[in-house]
Amino acid sequence: MTVTPDYIVIGAGSAGCVVAGELIRRQAGRVLIIEAGPTDAHPLVKMPFGLVWLMGSKIRDWRFSSTAQSGLGGRALKIPRGRMLGGSGSINSMVWFRGARRDFDDWGQPKWAWSNVDPVFDAVEQHLRPTQLSGAHPVTRRLSTMFSTNSGAAPSPDYESAGVFNYNLHKGRRWSAADAFLRPAQASGHLQVLTGCSVDRIAFQGDRADRVILTDGTQLRAHKGIILSAGSIGSPAIAMRSGFGDASQLRALGIDPRHDLADVGRNLHDHPSVGLYFSGPNSGYGLTLGQSLAWAMAPLRYAATGTGRLASPTVEGGAFFNARGTSAEPDVQSHFIPFKLGWTGARYTYGQGYFADVCLCRPKSRGALRLESADPQAAPLIDLGILQDPSDLDTLVAGIKRLRQLLDRSDFGPYRAPEAHPAASAQTDDAIRRYIVQTCATAYHPVGTMAIGTVVSPELKLTGSNNLWVADASVMPSVTSANTNAPSMMIGWRAADFINQEAAA
Predict the structure, then answer these.
(1) 55: region left, alpha or beta (phi > 0 left; psi from -120 to 50 alpha)
(2) Do 251 and 152 belong to one domain?
């Protein structure tokens, strides 16, 4: 592309790829999309099980860490974020959930009510075509018995459910927003993709967002507008370096405030998660002598058929249930992994087993993100605020107790394994609380730092700007009740619609 683009999209993650692709499909003009990381052209990206090695990669993961979390005894948490085309959608487990009607209605934004976003999900899914995982491990498939009335337990409410999840996978290969939206748009000749380009800030001409300034000093100009799609960590950091944020904090860092907008970076939250580990012969996948041949043959099987254990996204299924077993709606999600995971910190562990967690659907705790330095190479200070609200810990305790009951009543048949950790060491409420504080992590779903209604308008325009939009999970006022990849793509689609409508007005 030798001419100045009409729009520049910062960040080729799940939402950014959809924004770019939809602007092209709607013939809104020429688009340039900028990605800090490399392409997704790597065999581990397309292979579902490859995420085991991609998370923590020095090249394809931002490898953020939180500040010391007071609710977790001062522990810092890892925050993996995808750094390549497809963004976190290129390193995640590909679970596809829209979220519940209430998730969107509770945002209190009429343009984002369920009645308005539901048809957008339909449109996105025409491109993604998510389907239930095929070839799931037998123990995962038996999750469907969790709420069976044949278990001898009292029947559960109809809205509680368990089983194999839906995924954005095609023929055993990852199918990200880069695959579904970006590459088809490139065929138009009106979309340019730049990888390996880190953004420092956005510059203005008067009140218009005019240029994107890269960390190497390169300036890229846009005719019509700029879309910030760098995610819940990257978008607020770039906005702050561009002069949008708490004016006193920006001045202290030597940044000239453009618009005093204290809510930039606030409202950061994620799904807190704590797990149970099970181990026993003939249960799940694992490193054992009996499975050594299957592991040795796995690459050949995957290459030839796209099936087998390397076609597993690790998280194969799970459940939604009410932590206290009441008639209220589900307030926790469980992710089920039919592999033996270690709990001692070792990367590899011997034996067979499976893992199930309890993940809060609607956490009340909130944290915040702020800059430590104006240097774009310096990572921001990321306080997730985990378990700051005592009710979150209470619900996790109840959720662990109920998850144990539900797994015990599930018909796992010959694949059942006993709980290996924390097992007997965490049976009382107090012991479970200590275990949660010691081990709680997140589901890698950070949201909220550029929320609709406080930082951006309902049409996703950044407050105090004229032609600068934000489109990613950062605009969620509150996290949806399940995995956030699908809602992020929906947000990207809506952003393109709003931008195109404004251009046509």
Answers:
(1) beta
(2) no
The predicted model scores a pTM of 0.96
User: Using one digit for the tens of pLDDT, what is the confidence trace for 302-329?
Assistant: 999 999 999 999 999 999 999 999 888 9
Domain count, the chain: 2
- The whole-number pLDDT of residue 22 equals 98
- Residue 344 binned pLDDT confidence (cut-offs 50, 70, 90): confident
State the average pLDDT for the chain. Answer: 96
CA distances from 476 to 92, 314, 330, 340 (A): 19, 27, 20, 34
Pairwise CA distance, residues 152 & 160, whole Å: 17
Is residue 392 situated within a structural domain?
yes
CATH number at residue 248: 3.50.50.60
Q: How far is CA 79 from CA 148, 175, 383, in A?
A: 36, 23, 11
Strands 351-360 and 286-287: antiparallel
Q: What is the pLDDT of residues 380-390, one digit of tens each?
A: 999 999 999 99
Residue 259 is a catalytic residue: no
- Taking CA atoms, 250 is separated from 215, 264, 455, 503, in Å, by 19, 11, 16, 32
Using alpha carbons, list the distances in angstroms from residue 20 to 17, 111, 186.
Answer: 5, 21, 10
Domain presence at residue 383: no
**CATH code for the domain of 315:** 3.30.410.40
Dihedral (Cα; 14, 186, 461, 448), 10-degree rounding = 10
Q: Print the domain residue range for 487.
A: 7-128+173-268+446-504
Q: Which of 127, 269, 271, 445 is catalytic?
A: 445
Over residues 118-135, mean pLDDT: 97
Does one domain contain both 290 and 345?
A: yes
Domain boundary among 401, 421, 439: 439
Confidence bin at 129 (pLDDT 50/70/90) = very high
Of 367, 383, 307, nearest to 48 (Cα)?
A: 307
H helix or E strand, kind and range, residue 259: strand 259-260
pLDDT at site 385: 98
Q: Is the pLDDT of residue 2 over 60?
A: no
Is the pLDDT reported for residue 156 higher than 90?
no
pLDDT at 82: 98
First to last CA, the chain: 27
Residues 26 and 124 in one domain: yes
Kindly state the helix (H) or strand (E) to which residue 359 belongs, with its residue range. strand 351-360
In this structure, the answer to whether residues 109 and 220 fall within a common structural domain is yes
β pairing state of 31-34 and 191-194: parallel
Between CA 403 and CA 324 the distance in angstroms is 10
Tell whether 161 and 60 lie within a shared domain: no
**280 & 394 share domain:** yes
